[in-house]
């Protein structure tokens, strides 16, 4: 074949056509996979944050903070849209899940089973955190010469108290409108449970108008969720860039042992979930992992299990065939009281700070941490940063200076993202297990 008679423009057009074809194929591939968009956005956001952050000093610190705020604006809009509908969606979903149950007896059985599961999984998570931290001893990796925590007050924010006595005193809601307006998630859940059970006692014609209204609220919320999901990749890019603009490589390096301990513990917890799925359900492990990957990535980027709760319900029902009566009851409930990733992190952080400050914890104090972390997690909102407030109450209970929180505060958002992934994975696992046993 002679090439001399072929115009060079032919090759240019051919190459351009191939590139356009490849680009179209790739674009179609990406459009069908939200998780891929999120991964690419996250990587680009991290790189942007590191390049414009304090390590490379391309721009001033003030300019980098301002740029980070602008980049995070789509993320704030995204979170705002989600949080706008979280309360009505939780409220409607739990009531509809209860009403959709076959009987009060089956509801009682499901409630008792999920309570046992949530408490057990939380305790297992804390024990995993303890074990990893005691094995790796991350507190001994810290250069004690950099500790200047004595100048920081031990007083924590009084507005962020999650002690047992505070939870018990505020369990029962006294004002329906006030509860919904304040967004106290535990009270919303309890109120929804009471109303759902009461609604089951009414005749069908009496309950039908309210059930229809709640269905409309639920569908309306999902429409708004659908709009917000179109912003997800841009939101992930901006939130990731803002995080790493503030963080810098130095903060990550200085706390490498602590970060490694938390990540290893969370990985072990994830394998624990896979074992539960394998042994207690009929869902193949690969299908489980494939079904939840988008949910995990979005949870990682938003650091909020409450924000991704609608996607959790959709994932459970459409991809894992969980009955709506189970998913719409278990997942909103789990978002409020089941925080295994947070519990594990608190176990690692407690042992880490005890090692840093050379505080010897007795077996009794460790049991106290387990009990406090389990009970304090109940009712804590599924929003970014709440784990730090819970940790403060745990540290003060076992004699560890709460000022140690400021040592790990710099990398908390990064770890908050990772533990949120396990929080939502735990909710999906719980829904799968209860769904399997409800079938049986």
How much of the sequence is in beta strands? under 5%
Helix content: over 70%
Tell me the number of helical segments per DSSP (H or I, 4 or more residues long). 19
Secondary-structure element sequence? HHHHHHHHHHHHHHHHHHH
CATH superfamily of the domain at 102-189 and 247-439: Sodium:dicarboxylate symporter
Structural class: mainly alpha
Secondary structure tally: strands: 0
Describe the structure.
The chain has a domain at 102-189 and 247-439: Proton glutamate symport protein, CATH 1.10.3860. The protein is 76% helix and 0% strand. The chain has helices spanning 8-31, 34-52, 61-71, 73-99, 104-136, 164-169, 176-182, 185-200, 204-229, 232-254, 256-280, 285-302, 309-319, 324-337, 340-356, 363-377, 386-397, 405-408, 412-439. The longest helix has 33 residues, at 104-136.
Helix and strand arrangement:
Elements: H1 8-31, H2 34-52, H3 61-71, H4 73-99, H5 104-136, H6 164-169, H7 176-182, H8 185-200, H9 204-229, H10 232-254, H11 256-280, H12 285-302, H13 309-319, H14 324-337, H15 340-356, H16 363-377, H17 386-397, H18 405-408, H19 412-439
Helix pairs in contact: 2-10, 2-12, 3-10, 4-8, 4-9, 4-10, 4-14, 5-11, 5-15, 5-16, 5-19, 11-15, 11-19, 12-19, 13-14, 13-19, 14-19, 15-16, 15-17, 15-19, 16-17
